[in-house]
Amino acid sequence: MLLSCGGWRAEIAPEQGANIICLQDAGTDVLAPLRASNEDPFLVGSPLLFPANRTAGGKFRFEGEDYTLFVNEQKSGACLHGLLHDAPFSVLGQTQNSVRLAYQNVGELYPFPFRMEVLYTLTAEGLESQYRLTNRSACAMPYCFGLHTTFCEPEEFSVPLGLCQQRDLQTALPTGQLAALSAEENAYCTGAVSRGHAVSGYYTAAGDTARIGAYRYTVRGFDHWVLYNARGSAGILCVEPQRGCVNALNLPNPPVVQPGEAAVFETRITKSE
Question: How wide is the angle at C-alpha 204 spanned by C-alphas 200 and 207, nearest 5°?
Answer without folding.
Answer: 105
